[in-house]
Design brief:
164 residues; mainly alpha
Length: 164
């Protein structure tokens, strides 16, 4: 489907089926970009996934309509699945990507919401900011949500035997 939305044309109405088709394509693009768990750590893997997500959304002609549409039951369910998958990857990654509070699931929901909000804001601007600037902004916020710098770079606390 080819669709160009300009300032003079109305955005198309999105039914649930069109939104699901868009989401399935987005999911395929992200999965193809995923280097897998054997990649150079959780941060590299998530950066690649987030970058593919933002780049695809930013270039797809339906994205302005998708992100301007009210949140339907189907869209909300798909966003919960996306957050659950991120939370699972964080749990599996353990180490630096698994802070105890807030939980990985809570951080994943916040990261997905931030990713969508930043991208939606960029899509709504005229002129749009550069795509790579948006990729960088999204990744910075997602990374800091998943594992804030103080948690990523903190030295582990080791108590000596019989300290307490």
């Amino acid at each position: 489907m080819t669709l160009e939305a300009t300032e003079n044309t109305a955005l198309p109405a999105l039914d649930d089926e069109l939104w699901l088709d868009y989401h399935r394509l987005l999911e395929t693009v992200v999965e193809q970009a995923d280097p897998g768990p054997a990649a150079d750590g959780w941060e590299y893997r998530e950066r690649e996934r987030v970058s593919a997500w933002v780049r695809h959304v930013y270039e797809h002609p339906l994205s302005p309509a998708v992100f301007a549409a009210p949140v339907s039951r189907v869209r909300a369910a798909a966003e919960r699945v996306e957050a659950a998958e991120l939370g699972h990857r964080m749990d599996v990654g353990r180490g630096a990507a698994r802070p105890s509070k807030p939980s990985a699931a809570t951080r994943a929901v916040a990261a997905v919401a931030a990713m969508r909000a930043i991208t939606a804001d960029a899509l709504a601007q005229s002129p749009r900011p550069g795509r790579e600037r948006v990729v960088s902004d999204v990744w910075t916020v997602v990374r800091e949500t998943i594992a804030p710098p103080s948690e990523r770079h903190a030295l582990p606390f080791h108590r000596t035997r019989s300290t307490w």
